[in-house]
Design brief:
Distance between the termini: 45 Å
Largest sheet: 3 strands, mixed
Strand order of the largest sheet: 1-3-2
Number of helices: 9
Shape: elongated
Structural class: mainly alpha
Number of domains: 1
Radius of gyration: 24 Å
Helix content: 55-70%
Oligomer: single chain
Length: 316
Amino acid sequence: MYSDSVDHLPEDNLPAPRQRRRVLREPGSRIWAWVVLLVVLIGGLWATYSGFVVSSQGQILDHAALVSAEVRLRSLHAASVGLLADLPIVVAAIAAVGFLVLTLWRRRWAASLIVALTFAAANFTTQALKVLLDRPELANGVPYYTGNSLPSGHVTFAAATFAAMFLLVAPRWRSLVALIGVIFSITVGVATFLDGWHRPADIVAAYLVVGIWTLIGGFVIYRVSSDYNVISPRSRAQYASLSEILLWLFAVIGLGGAVAVVLLTSGLGQLPAHFSEVEPSPQGFLFGALFIGGAASAVCAMLASFFRWEAGRQAA
């Protein structure tokens, strides 16, 4: 009787044993680098609060940008209100579909749980900071309103949604997701700014809060779900992509332009001591828009470059 047992097959007909993937460096292995970047992001958040909420000159500059946007671009307010009403729904729908596809198709159960917790933590932190941080009422003429509005909740939600996608996708797609996310995040941020809901510093602080939690969530994912965070030696993901280069370019143009606007108009030292002496101007709006766009791009560029650098490396 004929048998299909491998004992009767020639040796060269045996199936080749599956080679185990050899990893040169595990993802997230340089813990010191994660700590350094975390300190940088937290320092940026504290500098934003200290420079634009606690400081008298910072309050004047920040609120001058808001008033300039309201006065000079009043015709865009209706459009921005509609955008703020519809865009979060669109962003949430896109993210929900992407989240389910990556979770069910790729079966990234642990990573998906960490991403969900990261998203919730970023939004909770924003609401907590609104309560915990104090906005002093200074004798500089800046309207006090209802107290602290930093960070922006709308912007946190939009940015955290794309941060979730950023963490779930494979390394080769991360810079592209970061670029798409920064476009949506800047759109929501500028719309919030145009409508007078938040000052530029509130929006920038939201980007930093999301960046902090993206870094924390990414570190846990790199340690727990390292399987899809290892780059093959033949993959282009080990090199900076066009999307990553564009993010750094936008960051330099945005932040450099915001600094240039301040220096070329009056300079921080030449700002009026009282807000009643401030006139709304196109330069004020330009400063706010560039500051928002540059900060969002800088946070996304740092994360895209860092996550590529800290991804695992597979041996040839």
